[in-house]
Input
Amino acid sequence: MGSVSLHNVNKSFGAVDVIHDVSLDIEDGEFCVLIGPSGSGKSTLLRIIAGLEEVSSGAVSIDDKDVTDLPPKQRDIAMVFQTYALYPQMTVAENMGFALKLAGMPKAQIAEKVRDTARMLELEPLLQRLPKALSGGQRQRVSMGRAIVRDPSVFLFDEPLSNLDAKLRVQVRGEIADLHRRLGTTSVYVTHDQVEAMTLGQKIVVLRDGRIEQAGPPLTLYEDPVNTFVASFLGTPSINLVEAHVEGGHGEASARLVDGTLLSLGSGHDCRDGQAILYGIRPEHVGIVEGHREGGISATIHAVENTGSDMVIVSDTGGYRLTAAFKEQRPLEAGQAVTIIPDLSKVRVFDAESGKRIRRREDS
Output
């Protein structure tokens, strides 16, 4: 096993700075997900941990050993790539055992490790096949098996599910989670898919422009985002962010939304009278009642999206749109007049200029 630590890591390609002073600790046995939009630096960070990219400054440690200047083969890591990277002329068994063969391990021992890993991944019937005879999901499992047989200190996953269709992504995602539970190996996983991040990660690191915006357990980031970027990046459908300004201040404050609706913010928010804010509420934290009621936001339903298990309502308020999400089926349809009632305990308030979270003083 092995912990991973990045210490003030910077990376530049010529005059372009892509990683800015990143420090991160990943505990022994932890499953850490690096997530962010394209260009956020997540794949570059993974390659730095692997030794495939040199740091411009800073240090990398694995299992408390400085590996900053060590080549990949000396870092005791195994990488699972997006493109499978299997040798087309080799069978499944040969692909899985190739790194062990290069290391000089005896043939009998290689065969035993490959067999044990194939059994774990349900690849035993496929061991004599060539990669071209496998499905995408099977190829990815072979790629994972090739990493597992090496028994590394750290697994590195570089968007391993992005080439799979939706159904296979769910299946292989479950297999990766199950493998981590059984093996307990430290894992660093790169993805742009927030569903993968939320379901797999014990720690999520949200990156933007080569900087860490927030890191922590999935539900902490979801429920307690530090800014609008993190709040918007995690969650489907995305959080509702409505322009507003504060009426009141440090005592009992309210938010005056752009359509004139006045909603209580409760007491204790560290905001000032007249401050421009973004009023944030997640779609699953609002209720809808038919007709117009006091204490809510008057709206007209614009669209109803029904997937069978979920129902998403998009409503027009006259100045912005709000999304509501429900698990139960509701008799609602486009054109219907409704009132949207936010759960005040779930409202998140952000400064409109900086995007930073405005907290209650007791939560600070």
